[in-house]
Amino acid sequence: MERIEQDETIDLQKLFAIIADRRKLLGVIVAGFTAVALIISLLLPKEYTSQVTVQAASGDMGMGGAAAAMAAITGGGVASGKAATYMELMKTRVVLEPIIEQVFDDIEPEKRPDAEGFVKKNLDIANTKGTQLISVEAKGRTPEEAKYIADTVVSNFLCLMTNLNKENKSLVVSFLDERIATAKKEADESAKALEEYSKAHKLYGPEAQTSAQLSKSAAYDKTLGELAVTKMAQQARLSSVASQLGEQNSDAMKYNMADAPSVQRLHNAIIDKETELVKMRMLYQEKHPSVVRAIAELEELNNQLSAEVQKVVSSQAVNVNENQKSLQMARYQAATALAVANASEAKVKALQAKADEDMAGMADDILEYKKLAREAGLKQEIYNNLTKQIENAKIQQTMESMDIQVVDPANLPDEDKPSGPRKKLITLAGMVLGCMVSLGYSLVLYRKTY
Question: pLDDT digit string (tens) for 201-219?
Fold first, then answer.
């Protein structure tokens, strides 16, 4: 035991004596490693860095408003919302492959780096915490190459975003165009049927005893018209997101949104508020404070439902890339809003059916006239609202095409000031390695001597 402890003890005085005796050799070793490191640093190709900064506008992004849902992942050093999505899109093959093909045109295609390898070696994409600023730092073999990579990454990304926005919005606009044509035809047919019936039965206005009932029907019709447009808009959004998910072969998140108690609570609250709004419209004009307040409260409940769906999906979502996660979030928000609209419509129609029963005592002609008038008004309301929806969609598409702005264009690096290789650091590393080898050699001699 004493022998083992003695072997494990190093006499520093003797070790330093060995180092002093062989200081010339050890100095040669350190100098050799330092010289080799210096030569390597001189032989390594120069590297230049160019930087460009872009800003993502605040608000929902063009792909179905999906990036707003990604705000749930903010925190720590992780980029948030749109910035995270845009950073991932900048690393996609559609953005980088044209650059790789141009930069490495002197290399055979099979030997060129793929998109992932190119990102690791030539790109550093970062987001300033708490902002929507994205910094793209590109490395190249020449100043011109570095600037070209930085410029082209941003320009290719902007083209990609423009195409995605156009494709997504064109699906929504196409769907609404079809619905508008159908709604216009139905509105014209309903108006014609009402006119013909009015002439045949000589009914040119409701009787006095039906005026109160007509005001109730108008309230039901207005609410049902709004719900019908909401359903169509959500169906269009759902179709658009489903199309993109199909193209990207996304993994679906499989759980029932209706099982979430918080979502169900807001679901029921919205249905109750729709019913309350119908009753308010029976009593007051549209600009009455009670009606205005009820509409505002309904809008707030819908916003709370969207936020709650976002929260529930984020807490249960599978691990997919940020773009797919955004699309999944948009899909569940649209599906939940569609389910609430369907339930609200069923509740209002039930109330309307009850009101229709109250009209059973009216003369058959007057009752039929009222029903035709109500149908014509409802079809016209749907047509008018759809027209507004498509105009909003077109305006939104134009705005989202300007969603990305270049804040700081790519600079042309100084040819006399390359960013790499870092010669001093490499040389210092060689010297440290030489010192370690010298110390190891001295320890070997110490063991042999003592």
Answer: 666 655 554 565 666 777 7
